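Please review the protein record below. Tell me whether the encoded fold seems credible here:
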Amino acid sequence: MKLLVTGAAGFIGSNFIHFLLAARPDSRIVGLDKLTYAGNLENLEGLEGRGRFSFVRGDIADREALDALFAERDFDAVVNFAAETHVDRSIQDPGVFLQTNVLGTQTLLDACRAHWQRGGRWAAGKRFVQISTDEVYGSLGPGEQAFREQDPLRPRNPYAASKAAADLLVAASCTTHGLPACTTRCSNNYGPYQLPEKLIPLMIRNALRHEPLPVYGDGRQVRDWLHVEDHCRAIALVLQKGRPGEVYHVGGRGERENIEVVEMLLAILARETGDAGIGEPLIRHVTDRPGHDRRYAMDASRIQRELGWQAQIDFEEGLARTVRWYLDHGDWIERVVSGEYLRFYELNYAGR
C-alpha cells in the first residue's frame, strides 16, 4: 500500500504513521505537512532511515504541489489529518481555519479525482479517509445520549464549523463523483506528542513547574477521552475495510469532567514524582471560553459492529501511560514551548 498521510507531523498524524509502519509491513508512506506551529518533525525522527517512509513539506491547499506528488507516487490511499485544530485560535483568527480545513480539503479531493479517475471510472483499490471530530455536532444537552452518525451537524465555534464544512465536501464528492471515501469522527484524543496548548500536556507541564492550572469556568465540561493508539487502530481498520460513503464514530468510552481529569493528573504526578508542591491548590478557574460546548459523547456501535473495533485502553491506564511519557520526554515539551522544534526542518531536511 502506497499511502499519503497529510498533517503527518502533527499529534495524531505522527502517531498514526508510527502505528501503521509497525502494524502493516507492506505499507509505504509519504508524510505531507505544512509545518505550521502544530507540525513537529521531531515526532517522526528516525523513520526515514527505515526506507518505508519519506517526508515532504507542503500545503494541501497547493494544487500544483499535490499534482506533482500524486503523479510521482501514484498513491493507493490518502488519510487526511491536515487541519488547524485549536478552538481558541479559531475564535481569534477563523480565516486560517477556513483556508486549511475547508479549501485545503477541497483541493485535496480535486487532486484525488484528477489522478484516480479516468473516463469517469475510478481506479481500483483507491481510498480516501477524512479525519474529523465530535465537535461538528455541537453540544449534548441534559439527558441526551451520545452522538450518532446520522445526527445533524451543529457546530458552535469556527474550528468545528470548518471541520463540518470539510466533512460535507467529502460527502458531496462521494455522492457527486463517486469518490471512495470514508469519514471518521473521534472524541478527545490524548497521548504522546500532543502540543502543550492542549489540556492534558498543558496541565502536566504547569504542574511540574508549580504554575497555575487554568480551568475554564466550573470545569464541569464533559469529554469522552480516547487514547491516540486506540484511534490509530480504528483509522487503520476504516482504511482497510470501511464502506465508502460511510461515517464512523471512534469513541473512547472515557467520559470525564475536565476538572476530574485535572485532579487525576495531579494525583498521578504527585505519586510519580514525589513532589509535595503538586496538588489541587494549583488549580485556577478562569473565564469560560465563548460558546464552550458542555458535553461530547460518541456512540461507536457502528465501527464495533461492522469492523470489530472497540477501545482497548481504559482512561486510567492511558492517562498514567501518558504522564509517564511526558515525564520521560520533558526535553521534547520544552523544545515545543521555546519554539526550538521549528528549526528541525531547516537543520535536517532543507536543501536536500
Remarks:
- The chain has a mean pLDDT of 94.
- The radius of gyration is 20 Å.
